[in-house]
Sequence to fold (240 residues):
Amino acid sequence: TLIGVGGTSNAAIPFNTTFGMIGHGYMYTGFQAQVSYMSPKVSGFQAGAGLFQPKNYAGDTAKTPGLQAMATYDIPGALPGQLWTGLVHQKTDCQTSTGCGIKPYTANGFELGGKVKVDAFEFLAYTFTGKGLGLSSVGAQFYGGADTDGNKTKSNGYFLQGTYKLGDTKFGLNYGQNKDKDGFLGDGGERKNRSYTLGVYHSLNKFITLVGEFNNEKITTNGPGEIKNNTVSLGGILFF
Fold:
């Protein structure tokens, strides 16, 4: 995605970050210990799967290892790019935290994405869906994944992006949305996080990239009120 600040409305939530479009088109990356296998790349195709250490949250434990798998395909030819897909399957053993649910349940998720390059342009599209993974706009795995009766929160989202590179300067525009409903939010409850970013990125050298961004963010529920936030950010990114 575009490298910058992105949306800031969830900055006060300790499980999230202002970096990029997390919570606005995709979920926060979970880093887990694992035993996994990745196949060799054959004609641009590669696949892998693994058993992942269960996640703990607020004293609740998932005792059974989770299953995750992915596959990618590198598109050759005049329009190079990549297609990818992934899935996650995890049984939880929540017992005490209302954020995780009282009754154990099984969480599942699926994602699909692709990008293609046309001369100086690059286009990307991505979507995901899940049940019981947690509130997708917060990013703590399984937090808010179900209510106290084990009814799972349903989550889905999508992300679109286009960039154009002119010399050492890249211009980019993206839009993303996450939506959670039912489960932890109650029967019929719904929350949407939507945001777009317009950015300009100039590479001074391999160490420093100058950044200018405008971000427009909107959070709505099926109840009264909404959150709107506009952010302008200027600065530099140091690579080492």
Observations:
- Residues 184 and 207 are 44 Å apart (CA to CA).
